[in-house]
Design brief:
Length: 174
């Protein structure tokens, strides 16, 4: 399916937040599958750019965020012992979008944050549209507090990041 100009093959419209939260272990298992699917589909952009260890870890944590929920740049940064701006920079040109759902990361104050390197305009409208399609709730122009998710498994993210890195080194850029 195509929604807001993005292919949604990697995204489910079923929300684990509304209608019952799935067990964290199941979400983490899904995250590993997302990383595997992203690798199988290949990079969508920046094909000649290697994905750094830090970016691999950020992408792996991002892949853990279930449809219908969002996390914050700060939550990912805290999980990695980093800074929110560094997380935003790592997600800015996500080469595995939409399989690795960077649109599910928002600002700590629950405002929409950035998307595709933009903070206003059509890209932000696309991000809002994607989140609404997945069932994320909004209240007073912000993400509803009940849509915030942060049950990261950093050890699982490190395993997934290693898989991303291994794929990067196994297939040199053309």
């Amino acid at each position: 399916r195509v929604h807001g100009g993005l292919h949604l093959a990697c995204m489910s419209s079923k929300s684990p937040v509304r209608g019952g939260v799935r067990k964290a272990a199941r979400v983490r298992a899904d995250a590993s599958a997302v990383v595997a699917e992203a690798l199988a589909k290949g990079k969508q952009s920046n094909k000649n750019e290697r994905v750094s260890r830090f970016r691999s870890r950020v992408l792996a944590l991002c892949a853990q965020v279930p449809p219908g929920a969002v996390t914050t740049y700060k939550a990912i940064a805290d999980a990695l012992g980093s800074a929110p701006r560094a997380v935003g920079g790592a997600l800015k040109l996500n080469p595995y979008a939409p399989c690795v759902p960077c649109h599910r990361v928002v600002a700590a104050d629950r405002t929409i944050g950035g998307f595709c390197g933009q903070t206003t305009g059509a890209q932000i409208e696309r991000k809002v549209s994607l989140l609404e399609h997945e069932g994320v709730a909004f209240e007073a122009g912000k993400i509803a507090a009940g849509s915030i998710w942060g049950d990261f498994d950093v050890a699982e993210a490190d395993v997934a990041a290693h898989v991303l890195e291994s794929a990067e080194t196994a297939a040199p850029p053309k």
